[in-house]
């Protein structure tokens, strides 16, 4: 099978130019598995590449197969693969680090400067009939987890990483800013971590309705750009200051609200895209520390890179 033209793939050739193409079936290298893909999600980053041809410094310069939220079945294994066999159902962790840099050796492989991420130029993604991936970044799916659910482990990993970094724990009161897909997985993760109450903000009433159905204890439809005023509304509805804030909208007033909502100690997890500039953030933090004597713990969570989340999602 390997090498034959029988691998239908969704290929981005330029902004607005998506094509279905037959490509050769790849052959797994040492340490890799060949997967028959079963479910691949469409991420906001896929849409961004399709419409703009770039995200920040990652620019499409040659045709690229799309897709990074994925699951599939092992078809063949390369030399040296011991823990997977043909027929195994797996979810794919799409970011593959170098394994040799100081960050990788320290266990923080999400910070690897040589990370190769599916469907991030120049690396091809997994929206194809067949795809090869390192075996140690494929995770067996329990029988009760479907292929679709396996593909959704990738966006869920962002929420798991954000809640870990923010310190969400049993009894926490949590603010989530933004009720889009990432905000919703942060909401679900915070509740799974034992948060007593989660309040979520958004401009869109429809998104907030979805958030309530998924377990949000309080919702706030944002109608002001006054961050201080909004922080007071949040505290009043929640009944206390949130212990942790998780910002998922990327809007400057919303990030400022997540900072101002705490008087003295701030635990803030930012889920932001690769393109985000944090210049303005320094002003808000400096002002808050000066006027409130606030101590800040801020974690910037690149939407692409989480660390050691897949086993936690599948087996805890």
Automatic annotation (TrEMBL):
Its cofactor is Zn(2+). Residues 181-260 form the Alcohol dehydrogenase-like C-terminal domain. PROSITE patterns: ADH_ZINC. One of its GO terms (biological process) is sorbitol catabolic process. Transmembrane segments: none annotated. Residues 30-143 form the Alcohol dehydrogenase-like N-terminal domain. GO terms for molecular function: L-iditol 2-dehydrogenase (NAD+) activity; zinc ion binding. It comes from the Eukaryota. The keyword Cytoplasm does not apply. The keyword NAD applies. Keywords: Metal-binding, NAD, Oxidoreductase, Zinc. Belongs to the zinc-containing alcohol dehydrogenase family. This is Sorbitol dehydrogenase. It comes from Geodia barretti.
